[in-house]
Each structure stands twice: as C-alpha cells, then as structure tokens.
Here is the input.
Amino acid sequence: MRSYAEYQALVESALVPALESLGPIPLKLREAMAYSLEAGGKRLRPVLLLAACECMGGNLEEALPFACALEMIHTYSLIHDDLPAMDNDDLRRGRPTNHKAFGEAVAILAGDGLLSAAMELMLRAAGEMDSLRGVRAAHCIARRCGISGMVAGQTVDVTEEGTEPTEEKVRYIHLHKTADLLTAPMEAGFHLACAKPEYIEAAVTYGQNLGLAFQMVDDLLDVEGSEAALGKKTGVDAALGKLTWVALRGTEGTRDDAARAITGAVEVIRRVPRDMRFFTDLAEGLLTRKN
Amino acid sequence: MRSYAEYQALVESALVPALESLGPIPLKLREAMAYSLEAGGKRLRPVLLLAACECMGGNLEEALPFACALEMIHTYSLIHDDLPAMDNDDLRRGRPTNHKAFGEAVAILAGDGLLSAAMELMLRAAGEMDSLRGVRAAHCIARRCGISGMVAGQTVDVTEEGTEPTEEKVRYIHLHKTADLLTAPMEAGFHLACAKPEYIEAAVTYGQNLGLAFQMVDDLLDVEGSEAALGKKTGVDAALGKLTWVALRGTEGTRDDAARAITGAVEVIRRVPRDMRFFTDLAEGLLTRKN
Here is the structure.
C-alpha cells in the first residue's frame, strides 16, 4: 500500500496522457477537457480505486485506466453541473468554469467527450485482460454513474429544487449524486482484484457511508466554510433552494449524522481481513475537511 | 436475414424496455429519455448492427443490447445537438425538441443518461458472454462515438461554423459527426459474429462510404427537401454558416459525390463472401431518400 499522495501523483500524471492515447483530438476539445481535468482537486475517486485494488492484491498498473476513467466521469459531471441551465456556476476550484472559459457549446461537448473517453479507456483495458474482471469493474462504474446512479441523483437534485426537504428525497439525492461515485471505485477496485463477493459487499457499504458523510460535510462547508479555501462561492445551496442535509437537520444534526456515517464506514471496512488503515484513516479524516 | 422493417420492429420494441431493465429511474428522467427515444426515425444504426451481425452468422438476440445502445447514443447526440447553445433547434421529427418539452437542465441530463445507459447495457451484455467479442464490439462503439469520433466531429462542426469550407474540414466533419456512427454498427456487428479481420475492414469501409453519402444527401435535403417530409426546418445549414458538402461543391457536385461514395460502399461490401444484398440495396436506396 502507498500513501494518498503517491496514489494522487500517479493519477495526476496519467490523466491527460490517457486522453491523448485515444487518438487525435480536435485542439479546442482537447484544451477544454484538459482545462477541467488539470484543475486539480483531491482525486479522491481514482485514489480510492487504486487503493481498493492494491489492498486486495490487485495490479496497480492494470487499475490505472479505470482510475483515470472515474476522474473523467467526475469531471464531466462537474462541467455539465456548472452550466447556466443547471447550477449556473462561474467559478470552480478558483478558476472560471468550463463554459466561462470555452463557451457553452464546447463545454457540453467536453463533458460528453470525457464520459465517452472514460468508457473507451475502460473498454480498451478490459479487452486486454485474460478474464472478465475488467468488464465487471467497468460495468460497476457505468451503473453507478448512470440513470439509476449519478445521473438519477443529479436529475432529482435539479427537479426538486425549492421543494420541501424530506429525508427520503435528500437521502436519495446524496446517495446517487455523490455516494454512487465514491462507491464505484471501491466496488470496481475490489472487482479488479477478483475479491470475494462478501468483501465487495463490505466495500460497497463503506463507499455509500463515506459518500453520505462526504456530502453532509460538503453541505456544512457551503454554510460554514471559507470561500478562499473552497475556491467557490458559499451560501449557494440555500439561495438555490437545494435539498441539503443541513436544510433537513440543521448544522448540529448534520455533524452528528456525518459522524455516524463515518463510524459505519469504518466498522464495515474493518471486517475485510486485510490492512484497511488507508480506508479507516481516510473516513476519519473527513470530519476535519476544509475543502 | 430479415427485412429492414423486421429489424426495425425488433429495435422499436426493445428500446424503452432496455432502459427500464437498468433499474429504477426518476420519473422525469425516464419521461425525457423515452420522449426522444420514441420519436421514431429510421433506426438505421441499430438495424445496420443487427443485419451486420446476422449476415455473418452471429446471434441476433445477443446483438440486440448493442443495437439499442447505438440508438441511445444517436438519440443523446441529437438532444445535445438541438440545445440552444448548439444548433438551437425547436423542432425534431415534427415534435418539439427535448429541451423545448422538458427544459434545458433535464435535456442535458437525458442526453448524459442515454449515453451512460448505452454503455451500461453493452457492458452488462459483454459480461455475460463466453468470449471478449462483446467487449470488442462495445469498444468499437465507444471509440466511434467519442473524442476522436462523433464528439470530435460535432466539435469541429460547432467551432468552425461560419469559416471557409475546405474539403479537409468538411470531410473531417462528415466522417466523424455522421459516418463514424454508421461505421460503428458494421464494425461492432461483425465483431459480435467473430468475423475475420479482412471482412471487418470491408465493413468499416462500407460504413464510412455509406455515412459520407448519407450526410451528403442530408445536406442536399436541407437545401432541396420538404419541411413536411423531414419534420424539421430546412435552409438551416446555410443560415448557420455550417460547413456542408453543398457549400463546398454545390448541389450537382454533391449529388455526384454521393453517388460515387455509394458505388464505393457497394463494391467493397460485395467482397465479403456472404449474401450482402441487404447492404447493397440499402446503400443504393440512399439517393432517393426523402427524410
């Protein structure tokens, strides 16, 4: 097992080369995709995938295309989410959003391109393996980013804006909009390492709890965080009438629920009889997250 | 081998059930995706895939998810292409475009959802096969709809609007924006039937020629066609300054070039030692296309 920073550096240096390995790309499209891919961020999803695969004895190099694909999917979702017709954000990680920099048409296409590239990368990698583990991993990722996963969560987030927050709705949105894309790397990483079904199940529950806690902390940061540390405006959720955990429970209740979700994540992943400190440390570190 | 109408009916009845087989979908998202999927059209891409697979001895039922996936990808591209930031169309196949019916946010998500669903369908199907032929077929489709395929063509189509049409640019746009998604079903269908590489190569060349001819006829219809028969406005390309084959060569030159591309398609597919009448008839019928 490596450190978070080591996994992150691996992803960082592989992302744009992975795009370019897919063939000649029109200059403007390449620029727009690279602009958002290179905007940094914590690379949490791909790091989780690499760590999940490696802790179960899988091959790190083999997992890298899947990790890059996941970060591309996350990035496409941010680009589309920031569009004027969606959340209409001008700033992301301290820089103009993709459509502010490249125009809406190219931003839509850059998002479409990143999602397509993610699938292409995974399919190419899966086609070079001697078993179906790559197909299984890619299938998990496609399912969790799709119409009963992330896209479902985004849709409900957008269409229910301004309605009464109920636990059912807020939970659905958090689970699909956010947690599915943190569950996918756990599930896919374990599949790549050909882990036992019961361990995959634990990895999925860990991912869901981690994802819920992550989004709860995100909701808290929008209320209490620093714009400078976050690189984006705060107070946006309330202004848009977003169904957040804070709107449902208040800040104290949200902090309690996040702590409970983190405890759940830690307990379940400890059941996997391997060195799971990477995952327990990561979950426990969430509560002190500043950006 | 079946008739075009039989393949079309198969696709028609499988499309929405395929979506629904992927799990519970939020109502609004399901509605928006089904609205555009059910808008009809010729189902040319999935029909080509089914016919390509069957003519080479492949299994029709096994090919169906890939055919549906291809139609979903085509449909997503139309939804995004019609958006105000792109071609800004209000009408498609005689009905309001997706964003006119559901709003821009849901239309963007319906497009994202259809692309994700397509990948999920193919990956699920590929995971159930006893060889990598499904992965290979899915990879062809992902590549041809991606950043060096359809998305590349769309990008150049949008970013070069209003510039001088050169043969290099117009050819690039036609080849990627249109022909790649007619080549994909030939290539994927042949892969699903485990056809020999030399036959796959012929199928690809057929698809590219068919696609070029198809887009040339499309450009002609925008100048000479009937709005009633097409179900959309004509004269749009010239108004937007689109780089069309007609802008490059005029209507007579375009008709000649389309005929030449069709001859090329017919000649190359005849080299495959199977009954290829389906494909030669289809190519030859293109010139009399009215919608």
User: Anything to note?
Assistant: Chain B is about 75% helix and 0% strand. Chain B touches chain A through 53 residues (CB under 8 Å). The longest strand of chain B covers residues 91-92. Residues 195 and 206 of chain B are 15 Å apart (CA to CA).
